[in-house]
Amino acid sequence: MAKRLFVSVDLDGLEDAVASVQARFDGVSGLRLTDPEQAHVTLKFLGDTDPDRVGEIVPALETAVEDSGVEPFEVEFGGFGVFPSLSYISVVWVGVRDGQGGTGLTALHDAIEEQTVAMGFEPEDHEFTPHATVARMDHAGGKETVQNAVEHNDPDVGRLLVEEIRLKESELGPDGPTYRTVESVPL
């Protein structure tokens, strides 16, 4: 049975800060908050993958880390953003402060993209924007509240030392996805 896989940098140690940022959206109609314990930056979504391929994915990730030239680095998370736009919101996220680790995340993403596409995984169809999803909009009931919060708030989430990337499995359930680390690859 296929595993739903992705590659991430997890926001370990920032769970309380993520929950604090999410508190601004408590009770907003149509908005579903993500689990702060599972906050992460997706570097590459692999999708449904034959479990037998994990043995080739991990070495490819090790090569990608080596090719990226990225050593452990700090990232500062803060500020709000949305996808795809403020007029039609499907995802609310916190981003990376300018010059505060985005270059390292982008270099990792680019190297992972190159390795995984060479393995036959689908290429990304959008530009990489380092972010951690904090909520998903199911309907537009509270859209104005979300727009106002995003436009008029610039929350600090905190700093994170990135020392590894993780191959994760996403298991979809009635209460949303649950993520499990399959393998960690150090920088």
From TrEMBL:
The active site is at H40 (proton donor), H131 (proton acceptor). Keywords: Hydrolase. It catalyses: a 3'-end 2',3'-cyclophospho-ribonucleotide-RNA + H2O = a 3'-end 2'-phospho-ribonucleotide-RNA + H(+). It holds the Pfam family 2_5_RNA_ligase2. The keyword Repressor does not apply. Its EC number is 3.1.4.58. GO terms for molecular function: 2',3'-cyclic-nucleotide 3'-phosphodiesterase activity; RNA 2',3'-cyclic 3'-phosphodiesterase activity. It comes from the Archaea. InterPro entries: Cyclic_Pdiesterase (IPR009097), RNA_CPDase (IPR004175). A motif (HXTX 1) lies at residues 40-43. A motif (HXTX 2) lies at residues 131-134. Belongs to the 2H phosphoesterase superfamily. ThpR family. Hydrolyzes RNA 2',3'-cyclic phosphodiester to an RNA 2'-phosphomonoester. This is RNA 2',3'-cyclic phosphodiesterase. It comes from Haloarcula rubripromontorii. The lineage of its organism: Archaea, Methanobacteriati, Methanobacteriota, Stenosarchaea group, Halobacteria.
